[in-house]
């Protein structure tokens, strides 16, 4: 029976201190400014629960960003179209308007991409992951990750009227 080798992990608080901005930024990019904080919180909860069982301290940032991306995916999957209650009054919820984001046209175009393309391009450029990291987060291959990002960028260039010349 093989025993797993215990690895010396830094204190979890050191991990939070080093990467909280990256997790928060990616969560907001994938889930939007309203749900981003909840996604980030859920990612930290999952990371905290799994942290003692890690067998490698290699590339903890990518590990955290993968958890964050999966939490955002879970949020989107949990949202199923629901019929409104007939007797309930409408509830107004104020949140940041897309016009308040830097370059609202770009973010609107990114938001309109198909889910996997949107996640791939966000992980690549907001999460600053390489194609191996994007592939791990989306449970696909690096080649498929490259294709998703490439297709997303081509769509964005077309929608925004950007030429490569």
Q: Taking Cα atoms only, what radius of gyration do you get, to the nearest Å?
A: 18 Å
Approximate strand percentage? under 5%
Poorly predicted parts = none
Order of helices and strands: HHHHHH
Summing up helix and strand content along with how strands pair, one would put the structural category as: mainly alpha
Largest sheet geometry: none
Distance between the termini: 61 Å
What shape does the CA trace take? globular
Beta strands, count: 0
Number of helices: 6
Mean pLDDT: 83
Amount of helix: 55-70%
Give the secondary structure arrangement, pairings included.
Layout: H1 12-50, H2 60-78, H3 104-111, H4 115-125, H5 131-138, H6 142-160
Describe the structure in your own words.
The chain has 165 residues and is an all-alpha fold. It has 6 helices and no strands.
Please supply descriptive tags for the structure shown above:
165 residues, single chain, mainly alpha, globular
Produce a short descriptive summary.
Helices cover 63% and strands 0% of the residues. It has six helices and no strands.
């Amino acid at each position: 029976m093989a025993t797993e080798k215990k690895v010396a992990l830094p204190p979890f608080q050191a991990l939070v201190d080093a990467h909280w901005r990256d997790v928060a930024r990616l969560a907001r990019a994938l889930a939007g400014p309203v749900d981003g904080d909840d996604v980030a919180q859920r990612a930290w909860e999952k990371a905290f629960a799994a942290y003692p069982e890690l067998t490698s301290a290699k590339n903890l940032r990518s590990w955290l960003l993968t958890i964050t991306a999966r939490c955002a995916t879970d949020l989107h999957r949990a949202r199923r179209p629901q019929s409104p209650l007939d007797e309930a009054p409408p509830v107004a919820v104020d949140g940041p308007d897309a016009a308040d984001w830097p370059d609202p046209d770009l973010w609107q175009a990114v938001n309109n991409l198909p889910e996997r393309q949107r996640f791939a391009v966000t992980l690549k450029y907001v999460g600053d992951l390489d194609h191996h990291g994007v592939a791990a987060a989306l449970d696909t291959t690096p080649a498929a990750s490259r294709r998703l990002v490439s297709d997303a960028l081509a769509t964005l260039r077309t929608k925004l009227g950007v030429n490569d010349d």
